[in-house]
Specification:
alpha/beta; 11 helices; binds SN-glycerol-3-phosphate
Length: about 220
């Protein structure tokens, strides 16, 4: 499973990209508001920091303007993926951009039926929001299971399942067990994945015992 990071914070992106574990980046208007800065410049910088796919979301909601915005965003760098909302106009935009060779991430997906439509529109990625489904008392991961199963029934579907609105490490593990293609993680969740108290405890012991040997590997 690929790991994307879900942030527009350039410092965070550069720091996490240095781990070698980041395959791509996703942003949205709320994340851009949080990070500040001119959006198109920010996208250009993120695309330089991470060679993988970088999702940049259109701001308009009508087809004609979304298409123009999508073309403008796609021209920023070769690794831009244009993100559009899962609406009728969004899917029309998805189809038009995909036909022009631009990869599209269809976002704000909350049902398997919507995911089917996005695949038909030629989306490179579908982004179901698991955390927001959990928030309203449903099981977000059930949607991932449904989409993975449905897409597997049709080998011609090339759309990758990108699990979004991830809130904790268990979402990541569940997404991987279901065979999702990508998980986009807030930086805090990616950092949480490294941690286990038994790792810390075990390492402390190894360091202490090694010191008692009086040796150095580098001597
Ligand atoms: O980028 C889309 C998605 O990951 C947003 O997550 O936490 O705002 O529901 P959240």
């Amino acid at each position: 499973m690929k790991f994307f990071i879900d942030t527009a914070d350039l410092a965070e992106i550069r720091d996490l990209a240095a781990t070698g574990l980041v395959d791509g980046v996703t942003t949205n208007p709320s994340l851009v508001l949080k990070s500040g800065g001119r959006f198109v410049d920010l996208v250009a910088e993120i695309c330089k920091a991470v060679p993988g796919p970088v999702s940049a979301e259109v701001a308009a909601t009508d087809f004609a303007t979304m298409l123009k915005e999508g073309q403008r965003l796609a021209a920023i760098a070769s690794n831009v993926v244009v993100k559009v909302p899962l609406t009728a106009d969004g899917l029309k935009t998805c189809k038009a951009l995909a036909d022009q060779g631009t990869p599209v991430n269809v976002t704000l997906c909350f049902s398997a039926a919507q995911a089917l439509l996005a695949a038909k529109a030629g989306a490179a990625y579908i982004s179901p929001f698991v955390g927001r489904l959990d928030d309203i008392g449903t099981e977000g991961m059930d949607l991932i299971a449904d989409i993975v199963q449905i897409y597997a029934n049709y080998p011609s579907i090339q759309t990758e399942v990108l699990v979004a609105s991830v809130r904790n490490p268990m979402h990541v593990v569940q997404a991987a067990k279901l065979g999702a293609d990508v998980c986009t993680l807030p930086p805090s969740v990616l950092r949480q994945l490294f941690n286990h108290p038994l790792t810390d405890k075990g390492l402390q012991q190894f360091v202490a015992d090694w010191a008692k040997t009086g040796q150095s590997i580098l001597d």
